[in-house]
Structure formats: C-alpha cells, structure tokens
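Give me the fold.
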Amino acid sequence: MATYKQDEGDALYRRGMYTFIKLTVPPPSMAIFDASNRDQCEVKRLKTNTPLQALMMMNDPTVLEASRVLSQKLVNENSSPEEKINKAFRLIICRKATDKELSILKNYYTEQLQLFQQKKLDASTTLKVGAYPVNEKLDKDISAAMMKVVNMIYNMEEAIVK
C-alpha cells in the first residue's frame, strides 16, 4: 500500500502533474473538479460547477495558502485597498472587475477587516495555513482580510471553470 508523503522545500510547489495518483482511486480534489477518467481516452472533459467545488475552494489548504501568499504580496505594495483588490481580480480572472463586482469585494474587505480588528475572527489562525512563510512584518488584520477577498475571487466560477 502506497502512502502519501508531502514534499518539502522547492519540491512542495511543483505542478499538479506530479500528484500521486492511485490508478483506481484519483485524488478527491481532482475528482471534484472533473478529472479525466484514467482508464479510457476522453476527447472532451466535463465541466460542472457544484457546491463541493465551492467548499473545497474555501477550505483546501492549497487554495488558502495561495490566497494568503498573493494577499501578502498585495498588502506589501504601496497602494489603496481598492487598487489591491483590482490587481488581485485582474491577476486571477484576467479581466477588469465590473463596478458591481468591485463594490461587493470592497464591502467584503471592509466587513472582514472590521471582524478581524474587533477580534471576532482570529487573523493569526487565518494566516497560519500552509508551509510558505508568513510575512510577520505586515499588519495581520489587513493581511487576513485581503486573504479572504482573494479567496473569494479564487472561488468565482470564472476562476474555477474557465
């Protein structure tokens, strides 16, 4: 029986093509996102959007770590929260956010920041996911709130399916 051992250092952040796959049992995260069936040739892959995908995008350590790393890079820049959100949207979705999308994301950022500042949510716990080092020099509340916004963008249908 093969067991999964997480890589460390530079090997940790390799592409998904290096994922350990047991022939008859694909990794659950790949199955949730319509991974191809390995025992037959598939000309066209299915595209679905299910609640399980949203749950995985909101809770998977890989997605959360990616959200944290991008958010901390954005927070480290000398720009307004709106500019940071715009940049995150452009990087992830590859287009400019509409006024409505930007308004929703800005309001969400403000709401999350208030919850972290009021200690109703714990920024340290939110930021500690993943193996990539946390930038301790940045404001934890701002970083955690931006991380939530970036994670929300990653969870958009356009980011998942297109």
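Residues 51-161 form one domain.
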